[in-house]
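User: Just a sanity check before I run the rest of the batch. Below are the structure tokens for the first item. I only need the designed sequence back.
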């Protein structure tokens, strides 16, 4: 199991880069939407695709190859998403991407659902036992020792054991990156991750941040970008320029923007800048 805090956060420039999405359902839709927003060149490989994906294809936003995934499908891809409900297909895609040194992420709805139901339907020990039993069943061996009661627990709920097997397969498919919960407001891009612990928690935190940062914050960032360009062009003194730019996001600025009326603060900053431009 991956240690907490070992991921390195990064924003990728995918404009014009070829990205492969394997799968054509709702999970694939979410991945495709983000890729299109980033300007990526998207190719979808799936025997069938949703109406939404077909609509994007009709609009010329992506290409679709209606067939099962094959290794050569990802040869020229910068990034690969596996988003099917078939663990063996996602595993093959992971293997192929690793061999080519590509960025890879598996978004398996069944595995996620299995892990969630394990957490809800049984305690941690039951799920561990069910997974252990499923692993041994895959290899044709026997469940682990530990008494008749433990063995009976593993096999009494066939549905839980199957779900645990899927979850185990998902855990054996390490991805090279995680997809965070994303908040976009104009120039602002906030990405929230729990390092894989709970996608639902990441989404909840993202939503709370979105409630805190209203739409006016996007307008303020547009002003900040313009202000910064003017300061870089007109203020030669590096220390003074740094001080002026720091004032953009001083405590008073956040309070003014959050209140929804930051026109007075804006004029104050502009006067300060113009004063030093004149000097």
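Assistant: Here's the designed sequence for the first item:
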């Amino acid at each position: 199991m991956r240690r907490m805090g070992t991921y390195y956060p990064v924003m990728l420039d995918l404009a014009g880069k070829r990205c492969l999405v394997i799968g054509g359902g709702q999970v694939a839709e979410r991945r495709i939407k983000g890729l299109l927003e980033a300007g990526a060149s998207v190719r979808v490989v799936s025997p069938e695709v949703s109406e939404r994906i077909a609509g994007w294809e009709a609009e010329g936003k992506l290409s679709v190859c209606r067939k099962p995934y094959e290794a050569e499908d990802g040869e020229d891809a910068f990034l690969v998403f596996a988003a099917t409900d078939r663990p063996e297909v996602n595993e093959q895609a992971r293997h192929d991407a690793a061999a080519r040194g590509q960025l890879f992420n598996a978004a398996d709805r069944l595995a996620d659902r299995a892990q969630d139901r394990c957490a809800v339907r049984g305690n941690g020990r039951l799920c561990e036992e069910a997974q252990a039993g499923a692993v041994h069943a895959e290899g044709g061996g026997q469940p682990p020792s530990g008494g008749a009661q433990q063995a009976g627990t593993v096999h009494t709920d066939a549905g839980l054991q199957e779900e645990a097997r899927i979850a185990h397969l998902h855990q054996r498919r390490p991805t090279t990156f995680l997809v965070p919960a994303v908040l976009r407001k104009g120039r602002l891009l906030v990405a929230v991750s729990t390092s894989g612990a709970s996608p639902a928690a990441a989404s909840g935190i993202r939503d709370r941040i979105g409630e805190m940062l209203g739409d006016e914050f996007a307008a303020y960032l547009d002003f900040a970008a313009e202000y910064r360009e003017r300061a870089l062009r007109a203020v030669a003194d590096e220390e003074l320029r740094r001080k002026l730019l720091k004032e953009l996001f001083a405590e008073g600025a956040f309070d003014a923007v959050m209140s929804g009326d930051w026109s007075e603060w804006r004029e104050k900053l502009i006067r300060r800048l113009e004063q030093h431009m004149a000097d």
